[in-house]
Automatic annotation (TrEMBL):
Location of the DUF4209 domain: 114-196
Signal peptide boundaries: none
Source species of the chain: Culex pipiens pipiens
Pfam families reported for this sequence: DUF4209
Origin organism lineage: Eukaryota, Metazoa, Ecdysozoa, Arthropoda, Hexapoda
Domain of life (superkingdom): Eukaryota
InterPro entries: DUF4209, ERMARD
Full protein name: DUF4209 domain-containing protein
Length: 472
């Protein structure tokens, strides 16, 4: 049994030791309770590194005691009133209610920070897609110009460098246990979000929000999974010889969240723990150190799922350890590039609380109880077929809109009644196609084939014929 999944170097930076002897820490709050950025700047002034310069491990290690001293001043939270810019008020209210454990709060908060900063970048740059990695996002001129060097510096030390505390990556890859993450991180992140919101309001800065398609429900629905037994899962967690004892608290908390119908937080907790469980098994099969380390890449989900090793091209031993249908199901739902990518979307803050319902949560606890491989295979094939059809369907709908606009333009300039009559008939043809398309589409049952066939048969062929008649 292991007492930690962190190397000594990372644990030193992450774990905040409580020391009552520290009495010389400045007060970084204004009279109103908000962050006093002048005092923060003065405190860190000798240490601040420009946003576009890398942070070395030696630098971050040396800065750790001072940064921890700073975080300890956030023992309380000022009631936040400037969080609307995040577009995640429901999730933040859940965090502020303190109903969830610290680890759950940090999973939610770090994803919200990344999503919200991405929206700032998108708005500030006039629509440029934000960098995929948080560390790259925090090194951009656009965010620094908007928020200032001091704010970006603090976020980089905490979240944005693999050589620093790297809080976001550590919690989302399942490395820390509940006792290794301080509630001070939670308080600080809430205060930072509130402080940024206040600054945006002062600037009159209106944030553009990104949206994301949540298609996990389609795949989970096609799996036809039974409802899992809460009592049975709890028994498995506490009796499993392969599950580390320090993981018990997290799994039990996940079960409690499911029973409380907090499905978003439940899935946030389960995914990193599932990844850590698989990482431990993979490390055991290959004799590799699975802990989080500074000088080595993590064992990630892609490595665990690949059928053949990228270097030796030998068959992945995980494929002999697990049933192939189980690995495929986990890969389809969590990691496949053309799949729902549930884990990525959740960890990057792209999903809202309503996107994770009981059905999705049930599918993520139930992955190890899949018995019908054929059903799962059909689900995968259905998803792939749907994704292949989308471009043609989208092109067809854009074609309809363009034709309707052109037809109305012609109607406005028609010289003869005969021409106008033809154009009206053509509009009726388009209306008939739209009605047929609506009747042939059933999103709940994932029935896209009839719509695809209707688009190819009715729209493209007959449109060309009708346009030919109109133009003759």
């Amino acid at each position: 049994m292991f007492s930690t999944f962190l190397s000594n170097e990372i644990r030193f930076m992450l774990v905040i030791e409580q020391d009552s002897s520290e009495t010389n820490t400045p007060n970084f709050r204004t009279e109103s309770g908000s962050i006093d950025w002048d005092k923060v700047r003065q405190f860190f002034e000798p240490d601040i590194v420009s946003h576009n310069e890398p942070l070395s491990h030696q630098y971050c290690t040396a800065l750790t005691p001072k940064f921890h001293q700073f975080l300890k001043t956030f023992s309380t939270i000022t009631p936040p009133n400037h969080l609307q810019w995040t577009n995640r008020l429901d999730l933040l209210n859940n965090v502020l209610s303190q109903r969830s454990c610290t680890l759950t709060n940090l999973l939610v908060l770090t994803s919200i920070v990344e999503y919200s900063l991405g929206n700032l970048f998108l708005t500030q740059t006039g629509g440029i897609t934000p960098p995929h990695l948080l560390r790259d996002l925090l090194m951009t001129d656009a965010l620094t110009n908007l928020l200032g060097e001091t704010t970006i510096f603090l976020l980089r030390v905490l979240l944005g460098s693999p050589n620093g505390i790297n809080l976001r990556n550590l919690v989302w890859h399942g490395f820390p246990s509940e006792g290794e993450v301080s509630w001070l991180y939670r308080n600080f992140l809430v205060e930072m979000l509130n402080s940024i919101g206040r600054r945006l309001e002062e600037l009159g800065f209106v944030v553009e929000f990104r949206s994301c398609l949540q298609d996990s429900k389609l795949l989970v629905g096609k799996m036809n999974l039974p409802r899992f037994d809460v009592a049975l899962l709890k028994e498995v967690v506490t009796s499993s010889s392969e599950l580390q004892e320090i993981q018990w608290v997290g799994w039990i908390r996940s079960i409690a969240l499911y029973k409380e119908e907090q499905f978003y937080c439940c899935v946030c907790m389960v995914l990193p723990q599932l990844e850590m469980f698989l990482r431990i098994l993979y490390g055991g099969l290959y004799g590799r150190d699975f802990r989080a380390k500074i000088d080595e890449y993590y064992i990630i989900m892609d490595t665990i799922f690949e059928e053949f090793e990228s270097v030796t091209e030998a068959r992945n031993r995980m494929h002999d350890y697990f049933r192939i249908d189980l690995l495929e199901a986990m890969y389809d739902l969590l990691s496949a590039i053309r799949g729902p990518r549930l884990r990525d979307k959740l960890s990057h803050g792209e999903l809202q609380i309503a996107d994770i319902d009981e059905q999705v949560a049930n599918g993520v606890l139930l992955l190890s109880r899949i018995e019908n491989r054929e059903l799962r295979s059909r689900a995968r094939k259905s998803l792939e077929t749907m994704l292949q059809m989308f471009p043609a369907i989208q092109q067809g709908l854009r074609h309809v809109l363009a034709i309707v606009r052109w037809t109305f333009h012609c109607l406005m300039h028609a010289d003869e009644l005969r021409d106008a009559d033809k154009l009206v008939k053509f509009l009726k043809f388009i209306l008939k196609y739209v009605e047929n398309a609506a009747n042939n589409l059933n999103i709940k049952s994932n029935a896209w084939q009839p719509l695809y066939e209707t688009t190819r048969r009715e729209l493209y062929d007959k449109t060309r014929q009708n346009l030919t008649l109109l133009l003759c």
